Amino acid sequence: MSKLPEGRKPIPQEWFVDRATKITPMTNEERQRAKEKAEANSTPYSENKCVSCGNVAATDFCEFCLREE
């Protein structure tokens, strides 16, 4: 265990237990929003192609080509 900075006290175990009791199940609205967010994040960038190698890219160049320059 690492040493705490001067003036800091360790968090008591009760703190974690208190926080765990406040966790609630997701509401239907939160669940729907999570699905929408996952779908939006799972789709690749738009259909842009890298002008250098032809791979999928967010802009004119893909991340690989940008790192290689």
List keywords for this structure.
69 residues, mainly alpha, 43% helix
Outline the fold blueprint.
Elements: H1 13-21, H2 28-42, H3 63-68
What is the ordering of alpha helices and beta strands?
HHH
Strand content bin? under 5%
Identify low-pLDDT runs: none
Helical element count? 3
- Level of helix content? 40-55%
Backbone structural class = mainly alpha
| Number of extended strands | 0
Q: Can you describe this structure?
A:
With 69 residues, the chain is an all-alpha fold. It has helices at 13-21, 28-42, 63-68. The chain is flat. The relative contact order is 0.08. The model has no long low-confidence stretch (mean pLDDT 82).
In short:
The protein is an all-alpha fold and 69 residues long. The chain has helices at 13-21, 28-42, 63-68. The longest helix has 15 residues, at 28-42.
